[in-house]
Write a structure and sequence with these properties.
This is MBL fold metallo-hydrolase. With about 270 residues, the chain is α/β, with parallel strands linked by helices. The chain is about 30% helix and about 25% strand. The protein contains 9 helices and 14 strands. The model has no long low-confidence stretch (mean pLDDT about 95). The structure holds zinc ion (2 copies).
Length: about 270
């Protein structure tokens, strides 16, 4: 059994994650060029023609700019909620997508790819109908959780019992405050419908930790308002407060912005 995640790109400049559950192979978002996706998959010896589909979290361009291209190239179905589809179509964000590749999903309603169960869940973000995803396969669970202005109890409960999590560590609050962004943009990032900051994400991670949680990938880092070391240190400190030691109790990796992050198996 092989069940793993592999971020192909992660950050405000573009997001794309590869999910592998034996024969069931999916991309979550394609916010990078088609070329980058093909190259990334080749690096880990995955033939793009074996993909089964593309899951969309939300319609921001750092998540969908390559979706249309990849769908057309490999004839792949695209899964998104109805409001997200409507927005992508009315704004012509994907180019032409064949009708048989337009698939509608609903929050909290699992979809199945063979034995792989995928559950979209609701998150807080300034797009029409954003979702995160829970992946369950052969008794193992992985979670994708990015683009979240805040988390509530219902969301955090999704993370319980995960064997691996890709969690947003978007920004350092101080860097946003003293940074050069115009005030409205600062407000957006820091608001409840923006992005998760290091400190809060670290708290969430320490809170959901259990001995079977094997790894956490810190993802979707801001280019302007974060540093990989800051994200890592936030996680390290929050975990240490609960006597959880990185390397011993949990593997923590900061996702690469432009390049492949190593495969993370559960
Ligand atoms: Zn977004
Ligand atoms: Zn994003």
């Amino acid at each position: 059994m092989e069940f793993y995640l592999c971020p192909i790109a992660s950050g405000s400049s573009g997001n794309c994650t590869y999910l592998h559950a034996d024969e069931q192979r999916l991309l979550i978002d394609v916010g990078v060029s088609g070329k980058r996706v093909t190259e990334g998959l080749t690096e880990i010896d995955i033939d793009p023609t074996t993909l089964k589909g593309i899951l969309i979290t939300h319609e921001h361009s750092d998540h969908i700019k390559g979706v249309g291209i990849i769908s057309r190239k490999y004839d792949l179905p695209i899964y998104a909620t109805k409001p997200t589809w409507e927005r992508m179509e009315s704004a012509q964000m994907l180019g032409k997508v064949k009708e048989h590749n337009q698939r509608i999903i609903s929050k909290d309603e699992p979809i199945y790819f063979g034995e792989l169960m995928v559950t979209p869940y609701s998150i807080y973000h300034d797009s029409v109908d954003p979702v995160g995803y829970v992946f369950e396969y052969m008794g193992k669970k992985m979670v994708l959780a990015t683009d979240m202005g805040k988390v509530d109890r219902k969301i955090v409960e999704r993370f319980y019992n995960a064997d691996g999590i890709l969690l947003e560590f978007n920004h350092d609050v101080n860097m946003v405050e003293v940074g050069s962004y115009p005030f409205p943009l600062k407000q957006r990032i820091l608001g409840d419908y923006g992005h998760l900051n290091n400190e809060l994400a670290a708290k969430v991670l320490a809170h959901i930790y259990h001995p079977d949680l094997k790894w956490a990938i810190l993802g979707h880092l801001s280019n302007e308002n974060n540093l990989p070391d800051l994200a890592y240190l936030s996680a390290k400190n929050a975990l240490l407060e609960k006597q959880i030691e990185i390397g011993k109790d949990l593997q923590v990796t900061v996702a690469n912005r432009y390049n492949l992050t190593p495969i993370h198996r559960v």
